[in-house]
Amino acid sequence: MCSICGHYPCHPQCPNAPDPEAVYECASCKEPIRDGDDYFELDGDYYHEDCFLDNAPGILVEKCGAVRGTADARCQ
Ligand SMILES: [Zn+2]
Ligand SMILES: [Zn+2]
User: Fold this and answer.
1) Which of 16, 14, 21 minimizes the C-alpha distance to 35?
2) d(CA 1, ligand 1 centre) in Å
3) Nearest ligand, CA 15
4) Which of 22, 24, 63, 76 would bridge with 46, disulfide CB 3.0–4.6 Å?
5) Which listed ligand is nearest to 49 at the C-alpha?
């Protein structure tokens, strides 16, 4: 039995608990997306929810052809 949480196997919140199984690899940070993590999938790439939200504009530009421009009245 674990001396920290008193359970065997460890309680999931216990620092001795093994990491949950990796299910996907995040295309942004390259870290595993583990069992129970929230994720986004785009074109077969998987992202942690946080990574996707942090990088959404860049991902849209890279994957979806989004274009960032600066409006310029002189070009009209
Ligand atoms: Zn434990
Ligand atoms: Zn990530």
Assistant:
1) 21
2) 8
3) 1
4) 24
5) 2
Instruction: pLDDT band for 1, please (50, 70, 90 cuts).
Output: very high
Give the 3-state secondary structure of residue 19: coil
Residue ranges and CATH numbers for the domains of the chain are 22-67 (3.30.40.10)
Q: Closest-lying ligand to the alpha carbon of 6?
A: 1
36 Cα to the center of ligand 1, angstroms: 19
Alpha-helical (H) ranges within 1-76 are 49-64
Hey, which bits of the chain come out as E strands?
Answer: 22-25, 32-34, 39-42, 45-48
At which residue do the structure tokens 């990574």 appear? Answer: 51
